[in-house]
Amino acid sequence: MADFAELCKAIIEGDISKVAEGTKKALAEGVPPKEIIDKGLIPGMDVVGRRFKEGDMFIPEVLISARAMHAGLDILKPLLSASDSPTLGRVVLGTVQGDVHDIGKSLVGTMLEGGGFEVADLGVDVSPQRYVEAAVERKADVVGMSALLT
């Protein structure tokens, strides 16, 4: 049986190779991709989020954990689309035109993907027209715009 506690711990520690290894092992044991996300990846990021809120973790550590979670999601994404897993909705994300900061946007995108949303990340310095085009093209339910302007 899959060791979700170890997968969760690897996310918290930001250990990309252990997350990838644990994800592959769970798949080999026949665990459905959605279950791996729900019982291994998301609980790990929940702990990270709680620790960040409490001041026990800082943005660099959160980013490392988010990259580790992405290592698992990257393995699972093709299997989720192949199995026609239902999506909770479509989200278009980007950083507004004139801004190049993407830490928060990237974290939000990772959490949304892990939570079952289909996410289109437009990147940074995104024009208003590009948001509209992407939202219409992808039939987005939500458009998220990040800005860290002074």
Write up this protein.
This protein starts with a helix and ends with a strand. Helices cover 61% and strands 10% of the residues. Strand 1 (90-95), helix 5 and strand 2 form a beta-alpha-beta unit. The protein has 150 residues and is mostly helical. It has a 3-stranded parallel beta sheet with strand order 2-1-3, sandwiched between helices.
Unreliable spans? none
Sheet with the most strands: spatial strand order: 2-1-3
**How much is the radius of gyration in Å?**
16 Å
N-to-C terminal Cα separation, in Å? 50 Å
The share of residues in helices is 55-70%
Task: State mean pLDDT (0 to 100 scale).
Answer: 89
3D shape: globular
Tally of strands:
3
Question: What is the strand content?
Answer: 5-15%
Count of alpha/pi helices = 6
Structural class: mainly alpha
Report the order of strands and helices.
Answer: HHHHEHEHE
Biggest sheet features: 3 strands, parallel
